[in-house]
Amino acid sequence: MFKRTGAPTLFSYISMRWFRFMPSMIGIICFHILWPLMGSGPVFKKYANELTEPCSRNWWTNILFINNWLLLPDMCLVHTWFMSADFQLHILSFFAILALSKTWSRGFGVVLCTSLILCGIAIPSLVNYKTNGPPMPMPFEEPDLDQFYRDLNT
Fold it and tell me: Residue 33 sits in which domain range?
């Protein structure tokens, strides 16, 4: 993973994380796609097909960890959006760690990390301001606002 200089290569940094997550993700996707074949009943097939249909179309987005960029109805395994966000932030953190290491100047690393923190605060604030969204996540009684919140945050 590390060269002689002590700095990790980008490929090894990403691939080690990817190979750590992939076996369980592939197993879950396979189980989810095959789930309609494992049961029976008057309404089982209907609901099972509704849940597994997005996985049949978009399973590859989970493999590449980009499924959090899809809208909620198109997501395969909605609960794994966090894994994709975590993986993407992990890639971004590589550059922050590299900037803070001895390879580049420490001042540049501090400026980069401070900029990333400020962007992490400013971007969600601007999105909420522009879309007239609520300042905090909360369940909504109105279906339009509930769908808006789901599409915006998942």
Answer: 10-153
Query: Which among 114, 125, 132, 91 is positioned nearest to 8, based on CA atoms?
Result: 91
Contact 103, 7 (CB under 8 A): yes
Structure tokens at 48: 């099972």
Tokens standing for residue 149: 């919140």
Q: With H, G, I as helix, E, B as strand and everything else as coil, classify residue 135.
A: coil
Residues 107-133: tens digit of each pLDDT = 787 888 899 899 989 998 898 888 887
Alpha-carbon gap, residue 125 to 38, rounded angstroms:
45
Question: What's the structural domain count of the chain?
Answer: 1
3-state secondary structure of 40: coil
pTM of the model: 0.70
